[in-house]
């Protein structure tokens, strides 16, 4: 029972850390970013990446060992939507992560990155997209935990109207 509780705790904590790291990235990212702010963005992105990896590992453990059983999850469209959103968020994060990694050489030479406005806007929109996607994951987790079948619920709603 302890393993289940610790796995769930790490899953939730990692989700909160990932969300918080993205909020920090969003707040610190600006055109005239200084050296300290740039390092903060790079470190926040590293925390985000480690948190995302922990979310995946603990999520797999919860599906296979500590949840309602793999059949429960794998037979739920809500589960696939939730995982799909996570994959989409992960894909959206690739461009910002590679951009921030490209700053490290200059940061080590005590030079802040120069960010052109179009790139800044692209990074900002991608991070906001990640935040929006992450904000929907707990909704689908709550639906999944309660056994709500999204497709069947939608069909019965449409039949009544």
Termini, distance in Å? 45 Å
Mean pLDDT: 92
Sum up the overall morphology in one term: elongated
How many beta-strand segments?
0
Round the Cα radius of gyration to an integer and report it.
19 Å
As a percent range, the share of helical residues equals over 70%
The stretches of 5 or more residues where confidence is low (pLDDT under 50) are none
Structural class of the helix and strand makeup? mainly alpha
Oligomeric state of the chains in view: single chain
Q: Tally the helices.
A: 7
Strand content: under 5%
Biggest sheet overview: none
User: How many domains would you count in the coordinates?
Assistant: 1
SSE order: HHHHHHH
Summarize the structure.
The chain is mostly helical. The chain is built from 7 helices and no strands.
Protein described:
Helices cover 83% and strands 0% of the residues. The protein is built from 7 helices and no strands. α1 packs antiparallel against α2 (35-66). The longest helix has 32 residues, at 35-66.
